[in-house]
Amino acid sequence: MSTPAIYIKQGREKPLRQRHPWVFSGAIQRSDAAPPGAIVDILDYKGSFLARGYANPASKLTARALTWDPTEIIDSAFWQRRVDAAIARRRPLLSADQTACRLIMSEADQLPGLIVDKYGEHLVIQALTAGIDRHIAPIVTALHNALSPLTISERSDDSVRDLEGLPRINRLLHGSEAALSDVLIVEQGVNFRIDLRAGHKTGFYLDQRRNHTLIGSLAAGRKVLDCFSYTGGFTMHAAKGGAASILSVDASEPALARLRENLSANGFAADDARFQQRAGNAFEILRDLVQSGERFDLITLDPPKFAASGGQVEKAARGYKDLNMLALKLLNPGGMLATFSCSGHISLDLYQKIVFGAAIDADRNAQITSHLFQADDHPVLLTFPESLYLKGLLCRVL
Predict the structure, then answer these.
(1) 311 falls in which pLDDT band (50, 70, 90)?
(2) What's residue 1's pLDDT?
(3) Domain spanning 205-397: which CATH class is it, in words?
(4) pLDDT in tens, 81-128
(5) What are the angstrom distances between the C-alpha of 23 and each of 42, 62, 290?
(6) Do residues 153 and 140 make contact, with C-beta atoms less than 8 angstroms apart?
(7) Under a CB-based contact definition with an 8 Å cutoff, are residues 115 and 207 in contact?
(8) What CA–CA distance (Å, rounded) separates 111 from 66?
(9) Are the CB atoms for 341 and 391 separated by under 8 Å?
(10) Which fold has domain 5-67?
(11) What SS3 class is residue 47?
(12) Does residue 342 have an active-site annotation?
């Protein structure tokens, strides 16, 4: 039985020839009938081979390439090879002091639509596309073969599945449900208790590992404000780094309750007056702090994604500017601001311009001392620059 084919319009094949894995509906001349997620050959308008991948006619992003080798068959052995290769690349990153990392980073690991995170002996999968959803069984088998994990759970509950015509899924694929609610991981020597059933993303913000460590190295003796703290990634490293005090702000009281558990997991007393938490809207809390004359020496801003599409960039930019303006007003001279955007539609250049505008509005002079990015277990594929999504600035107020 022949593989269904997608034919690319004349003049639209250049991205594929340059090994960019995405094919949008507007680039397609015609295509054979195929169910969502089916393996297809991607051909130029003359019928010459460009790539092989999977397709979803229901999505504007209609096909994603898996291989540019016409002899490579997409079968169980293919998934095993790709899974094994991605895991091998992560092994040097794992140790007794670092027990969690991203094992598979979608397009960046040549497995578009697949996320796999490792939390100790537990794996969490996100199947974000119809192609991965259709082939989840051999992928799970490949993970079993490679790692023999205690549990494998699927957290395919991201809104991107709506665009693929897929239901959101949160289920256990292997192991005991009871093991998921209180998993202990170690990040650069700092302990975290996480909930793999209900936590954000797959349970923790693994992409901030290096930036968590950076904040820890800057925290000694400083008064710290951690905005959008979630369960305390920056807070824990700042506490271990010797911060004089930390105010952690998050909209979720359950997240702050878990943050307090993480303080205990790192040897800090639950009633230690140095560590305070405040639940609520970060914008409103920052305005209250400005009005009350509070000042800090180190502030982190790690908000959720403000721009899920290109059409939301202008509104997102206004939000980022307001947030950074308030934070800059709260910093003492010499104070440091670590500010981030995880919105893929916001470029580093644009984000720097947004923070520049915020500094002008805050009447502050500031220096950029570092550009900050996602950790090395979240690599960026050169042919797929979209895999760089987390960007940040470390700024010093003069």
Answers:
(1) confident
(2) 61
(3) alpha beta
(4) 999 999 999 999 999 999 999 999 999 999 999 999 999 999 999 999
(5) 9, 6, 48
(6) no
(7) no
(8) 6
(9) yes
(10) 2.30.130
(11) coil
(12) yes
Q: What are the CB-based long-range contacts (under 8 Å, 24+) for 31-35?
A: 31/4, 31/5, 31/6, 31/7, 31/55, 31/57, 31/62, 32/4, 32/5, 32/6, 33/4, 34/4, 35/134
Q: Which of 101, 227, 342, 395 is catalytic?
A: 342
**How far lies 283's CA from each of 198, 249, 336, in Å?**
25, 10, 19
Cβ atoms of 109 and 79 within 8 Å: the answer is: no
CA gap 357, 320 in Å, rounded: 10
CA distances from 218 to 139, 152, 192, 225, 390 (A): 41, 36, 20, 13, 21
Candidates 284, 364, 360; CA nearest to 321 is 360
Return the structure tokens found at 87: 């895991």
Identify the CATH homologous superfamily for domain 76-183: RNA methyltransferase domain (HRMD) like (3.30.750.80)
Domains of the chain: which residue ranges? Answer: 5-67, 76-183, 205-397
Q: What is the pLDDT of residues 148-177, one digit of tens each?
A: 999 999 999 988 899 999 999 999 999 999
Question: Per the structure block, which two tokens stand in for 167?
Answer: 């239901």
CA 382 – CA 132 distance, rounded (Å): 22
